Amino acid sequence: MPEAAVHIGSGKVRELYALDDERLLLVASDRVSTFDVILPTPIPDKGRVLTGLSSFWFARTAHIVPNHLLALREDGRSLECRRLEMLPVEVVVRGYLSGSAWRDYRETGSVCGHVLPAGLRESERLPAPTVTPATKAESGHDENIDGSTAARLVGADRWAEVEDVALELYAFAAAHAERRGIILADTKFELGLDTAGTLVLADEALTPDSSRFWPADGYAPGGPQPSYDKQYVRDYCESLGWDKTAPGPEVPDEVVAGTRARYVEAFELLTELAFADYIADPQVVLG
Length: 287
Ligand code: PZK
What we know:
Elements (H helix, E strand, L loop, with lengths): L5 E5 L3 E5 L4 E6 L4 E2 L2 E2 L7 H16 L7 E4 L5 E5 L2 E2 L3 E7 L2 H10 L1 E2 L2 E2 L9 E11 L7 E2 L2 H8 L1 H24 L2 E12 L5 E4 L8 E5 L15 H9 L13 H19 L3 H6 L7
Helix pairs in contact: 1-6, 3-4, 5-6
Bound molecules: ligand PZK.
């Protein structure tokens, strides 16, 4: 009889369990957060869409960097993964100027120590993809740091390796997404070290919760872009005049259905698989 999984952590929309000393179980829920608040209404299959996409990318990027995926469970929402020593830095790669990078640029002309050209507009494509590290702040929000601070936290040689790997992952995924009509504006990677000291890609990778996906059709720099997946639910919440503090509003069936359809559409465009085929056999995403 296998030991019971021991709950060791909760993210906003995910749970983490220890299976044994070497293995963790990462379970993605159907919860959705908007404006940093978890809504009381789940989006059916969202956890499976994110787990399927993450697994798809792990299978297709193993030539760039090894990853923590050991097994994708039959429920389609749970990943068995290798337990690593996580690096204390989140690694964001940005191809476009959005979110905290846009705020930092407007205030200082720089993002994480990278001086950018003057006159860039919100959501504009950057001259080149840029690594912008952050630390997991105790108080919820991540704090942007510069590369020299990241290098102090993990070591200069390791940081150089992390930057190279992150840029290669971004270039691979952004090119793939672009061919399917999706702009990968930015994405956050989390990496760790295995017992041999090898750098390993962990957490979820290249999902709509760890990335900004924008429809290429209608891309218009000069303001914020609609999110591929969450825009329906965001627009609905804004239409209520909700003050964006917890608890979030309940979401009506048609908004749930519209949001679910967008998650499924992103899955199908990026994986070139029918979502029904994933439900029937999650292993299809591993190619
Ligand atoms: C690890 N988190 C984030 C927190 C979640 C996820 N392979 C790994 N080895 C060791 N630790 C982690 C991982 C991964 N991935 C990930 N925290 C630790 C996290 C809460 C809930 F689902």
